[in-house]
Write a structure and sequence with these properties.
mainly alpha
């Protein structure tokens, strides 16, 4: 083959556009001929491909994996420990009515209710003050929309009167 044809085939090969016949032609060229200096890397590459075709694995690969029962026993033990832990940690029955509580527990209950009510009132006051900010934000957004409408109006009038202001 002519060197120009080989170079064209190598360009196609680099782009992944060669056919099997063209790749075979490249292999035979580089195996039979001494490659020019600028194509030495391709010659080495095709020689490597030919050498690796000749290689065969000599080590046998076992097809059946060794079965291990260790993982089965670990999973059974983990399930048993989990079930035992759930059985041991049964919570005490919760007192559901206020009359079942002691005097001290009832006082604590009422103080807790009072504290939560105070926190709720303070949060509601803060929420009312935030409503003012929401009103201001909506007014601000309306103002921005009106300013953008003025900008559009200005651009339109400039087009009508053919005045350019930069």
């Amino acid at each position: 083959m002519v060197l120009n044809d080989i170079e064209k085939l190598l360009e196609k090969y680099d782009l992944g556009e060669t056919t099997l016949q063209e790749e075979q032609a490249l292999r035979t060229y580089f195996s039979e001929n001494e490659a020019p200096e600028h194509l030495k890397s391709y010659g080495l590459m095709f020689q490597y491909f030919e050498q690796t075709k000749q290689e065969h694995a000599t080590k046998e690969v076992p097809l059946k994996p060794k079965k291990s029962n260790v993982y089965k026993w670990i999973s059974v033990a983990a399930a048993a420990v989990l079930m035992f832990g759930l059985y041991i940690s049964q919570p005490e029955p919760v007192k559901t009515e206020l009359s079942q509580l002691s005097q001290e527990e009832q006082e604590l209950y009422y103080k807790t209710i009072e504290a939560l009510d105070l926190v709720s009132n303070q949060l509601n006051k803060g929420k009312q003050q935030l409503v003012v900010l929401d009103v201001m934000a909506s007014s601000y957004n309306e103002g921005i929309e009106k300013v953008s409408m003025l900008d559009e109006f200005s651009q339109t009038t400039n087009k009508i009167f053919k005045t350019e202001t930069n």
